[in-house]
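Narrative of activities, Objective 1.

The group set out to show that a structural description can be obtained from nothing but a protein's sequence at a throughput compatible with the screening campaign. Below is one input-output pair from the validation batch, recorded exactly as produced.
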Amino acid sequence: MLVSSCRLFFCGCLILFAAPFLAADDAPATRSVEIDSFELSIPETWKQTQPSPAQRRFRKAQFEIPQADGDADPAELVIYHFGPQGGGGVDANLQRWIGQFDASGRKAKKTSGESPLGEYVLVDIAGTYNKPIGPPIRQQTQPMPGARMLGVILHAKKGGNYFFKLTGAEKTVTGAVDGFRASFGAKADSEQDYE
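Output recorded for this entry:
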């Protein structure tokens, strides 16, 4: 009986000692990406791509997120900055992003929070996304059923508002949610509903 108790105690201590190391191995590897006056922690699997010459003025960075099994295309994260006072108001941008999805079957949730980089508002939208195609001046779109978007307006402590827009197939975006929030230090459990 004493031997069994000692074995259980030893096994319990071993598990407690090893748990932090096991958890650390499960965390995805990240790299730091500098955006103006702050750094983002981006998952290693997200490939940084270059905006086209026409897009470079306002796109600070963009990333391709590998597609989940069964999805045809990768998702895309684009980070915009229009200057300290540019880009329009928070509510106008949230409504514009929501309006990029067909009203029929659309689901949208707005939350707000605070990260080490500054306060932010997040909108999570699912449904049929009217994905822009071609030059923006032509305003052409293509319906993308089963899509999801995470849009964030981050009021950075330096530099004003930065706009994060992650779009793609719902399964792929769902798999990227934790990495997306972690990239700028957001925590879902501390967010509150935004009205």
